[in-house]
TrEMBL record:
Keywords: Heme, Iron, Metal-binding, Monooxygenase, Oxidoreductase. It holds the Pfam family p450. It comes from Paenibacillus mangrovi. PROSITE patterns: CYTOCHROME_P450 (PS00086). This is Cytochrome P450. It comes from the Bacteria. InterPro entries: Cyt_P450, Cyt_P450_B, Cyt_P450_CS, Cyt_P450_sf.
């Protein structure tokens, strides 16, 4: 990998402190240094891309690839895939390039089309109501733990055929694991290893059970594809199940949480939505733009030298596309820092773009719409139960989501 040695400023994109000031930082970068060279806390040099047009182009540019293995020396590769366990979880479509990407995506694409997802409407509404039934009489809740987390995880567990009673255990594992596998910090990997092993064991059991006793769920369908031959290796099967669970709930938790926050911070928009529920789909798009759950696209690597804004991104360099920044770009969005649920032509990049465009976008939109509308209908006087300044963003690499969101109603 060509890591050039001139000094690059350290940027701790993981920290809660960075998350707190990220939007103003991005504004300065878009103006002054739209392609910004920096160093991640693990020493990796990377380029941060912050303008809308560049972000859109980079996501579609096949010179930027997801799987860096062909660009690395043997030594670097050994370091990166140090742990066999980690390798079992990352062989997924999100981190691969064609033709592997196309093959893996095609295996599950059909289950996530808007038509298939529409059929889940009744069940998602039922889960939402059951969750709110349990909370309604309490008069208060932590939106994240009691509502935003259980809803999408129950939905994706049911689609996959995983017992929903295991969701808290899964959450505990995944919080630690995501950090460890998205960025290579050896201490984090070491810390996460026991949890990674438990999770792999869990997925292994699930596969074993479904192999013996297939049902109508996605895991059984994937096992079928694996046993039929060339379509899916065992390693890819583990990685696919892991990706679908993680992508299926980690992000939507934050769509619901960030959506409630944005509405509470903008009471006039909250009232507008309550009196005009038909605005829900444009409200969801605006939440995705304003506080997108995926702040940064997953890492990409330059497959060849690329010149951008007079900066030479060398073959093997890592790039990070700041979706959250592109979504506040003043050249694309009028009054970008204004939260307006009636915004027109809202071409945000919250679901990415190009071949890796979010597979679950129709599902996330439907879950977000049902969750927020039902919440507003059943708890119309929802208010924050803490100072807005006391709210903390989770210190994570790619996501934007609150640690907790206490409300009264
Ligand atoms: C509001 C919720 C969600 C947001 C904001 C979101 C965002 C994204 C983004 C930005 C990407 C592209 C990342 C990149 O190119 O680096 C992506 C990919 C993906 N998302 Fe989502 N996502 C959401 C919900 C979901 C759900 C519910 C699922 C269901 C399983 C899902 C499954 C996936 C998968 C499998 C990929 C990889 C697609 C590929 O590489 O071809 N996502 N998502």
């Amino acid at each position: 990998m060509s890591i050039s040695n001139h000094k690059a400023p350290l940027l701790d994109l993981f920290s809660a402190e960075f998350k707190g000031k990220a939007y103003s930082f991005y504004t300065r970068l878009r103006e002054n240094e739209p392609v910004y060279r920096f160093m991640l806390p693990n020493g990796q040099i990377a380029w941060l891309i912050t303008q809308y047009e560049d972000a859109q182009a980079a996501l579609k540019d096949n010179r930027f690839i997801k799987n860096p293995h062909t660009l690395l020396s043997q030594e670097q590769m050994n370091k990166l895939i140090l742990m066999q366990e980690r390798d079992l979880l990352i062989n997924n479509m999100g981190l691969s390039d064609p033709p592997d990407h196309t093959r893996l995506r095609n295996l599950v694409q059909k289950a996530f089309t808007p038509k298939m997802i529409k059929e889940l409407r009744g069940r998602i509404q039922e889960i939402t109501d059951t969750l709110l039934d349990e909370i309604q009489d309490k008069g208060k809740m932590n939106v994240i733990d009691e509502f935003a987390f259980p809803l999408p995880i129950i939905v994706i567990f049911e689609m996959l055929g995983i017992p929903t009673k295991d969701r808290d255990q899964f959450r505990e594992w995944s919080n630690v694991i995501i950090e460890a596998i998205t960025i290579d910090i050896p201490e984090k990997m070491q810390e996460a290893l026991p949890k990674i092993q438990s999770l792999i064991k869990y997925i292994g059991h699930l596969i074993e059970e479904r192999r013996k006793d297939p049902t109508e769920d996605l895991v059984s369908a994937l096992i079928q594809a694996e046993t039929e031959g060339e379509k899916l290796t065992e390693n890819e099967l583990y990685s696919m199940i892991f990706l679908l669970i993680i992508a299926g709930y980690e992000t939507t938790v934050n769509l619901i949480g960030n959506g409630v926050l944005a509405l509470l911070q903008h009471p006039e928009q909250f009232e507008k939505l309550k009196s005009n529920p038909e605005l829900i789909s444009s409200a969801i798009e605006e939440i995705l733009r304003f506080y997108g759950p995926v702040e940064l696209a997953t890492s990409r690597w330059a497959g060849e030298d690329v010149l951008l804004h007079e900066k030479m991104i060398r073959k093997g360099d890592m790039i990070v596309v700041a979706l959250a920044s592109a979504n506040r770009d003043e050249t694309q969005f009028k009054n970008p820092d204004l939260f307006d649920i009636t915004r027109k032509n809202n071409c945000h990049l919250a679901f990415g773009m190009g071949i890796h465009y979010c597979l679950g976008a129709p599902l996330a939109r439907l879950e977000g719409q049902i969750a927020l509308l039902t919440l507003l209908r059943r708890m119309p006087n929802l208010r924050l139960n803490t100072d807005a300044e006391a709210l903390k963003w989770r210190p994570t690499f790619v996501m934007r989501g609150l640690i907790e969101l206490p409300v009264v109603f």
